[in-house]
Amino acid sequence: xxxxxxxxxxxxxxxxxxxxxxxxxxxxxxxxxxxxxxxxxxxxxxxxxxxxxxxxxxxxxxxxxxxxxxxxxxxxxxxxxxxxxxxxxxxxxxxxxxxxxxxxxxxxxxxxxxxxxxxxxxxxxxxxxxxxxxxxxxxxxxxxxxxxxxxxxxxxxxxxxxxxxxxxxxxxxxxxxxxxxxxxxxxxxxxxxxxxxxxxxxxxxxxxxxxxxxxxxxxxxxxxxxxxxxxxxxxxxxxxxxxxxxxxxxxxx
Length: 253
Ligand code: H13
Description:
Elements: H1 4-11, H2 25-40, E1 47-53, E2 56-61, E3 64-65, E4 68-69, E5 73-80, H3 84-92, H4 97-100, E6 104-114, E7 117-124, E8 133-144, E9 153-160, E10 173-174, E11 176-187, E12 202-213, H5 220-246
Parallel strand pairs: 8-10
Antiparallel strand pairs: 1-2, 2-5, 3-4, 5-12, 6-7, 7-8, 8-9, 9-11, 11-12
Helix pairs in contact: 3-5
The structure holds ligand H13.
């Protein structure tokens, strides 16, 4: 059998697949755990509330690396009538993407690593006064149960990865991203019989976290203005889309 030591010895720092685990499984595990830790951290020093709209709160920390804006962003929201599973399902699934995404020219799956992990290649709309951007990232969906009584936490992580089917062709510029959607479901005034839970009794508490590097210099003010406008717009549109899609469907817990 192959153990950790053999894995380390044979992998030689490369990602190879071992025993039912795909070649990026360790990366996925690490990034998922980092997000679960990071999302619980308090929002204090350095975080600015840049937008508030109903229950949506958008926070940003201004950070530059070599003169490039890489501001971390966190959005908290609470959505009535949907579950965390539903939010993550519509966020992760390829088939719905172009129905709610307004910032993309195209999206495609270039590899499926396992049932819950795929690699996307996306062409982004040109929103900046500079080169168009593309992205290539693994996208993973997961359900984490915390206890018998509580509803599980659902999350989706999108994380940039290179791929032979998606070489960077200059002048094309690649976005570098580490993005997570993390959701909890709250059941208000739970009826005695779980079968009697109605959409009006449920609520999804959502956290959306984004670290995006534009992959090349863009005027700081331009990136910050676009981000401040586009992230709330995305979440507004996406959550209305999920509410609309699930309205007359059985609740997906
Ligand atoms: O998360 C969003 N969309 C995902 C599904 O299409 C893909 C996203 C991703 C982005 C970039 C690279 C890899 C993955 O997770 C919604 C994104 C909304 C973006 C609003 C635009 C903001 C512009 C910010 C500029 C920063 C450089």
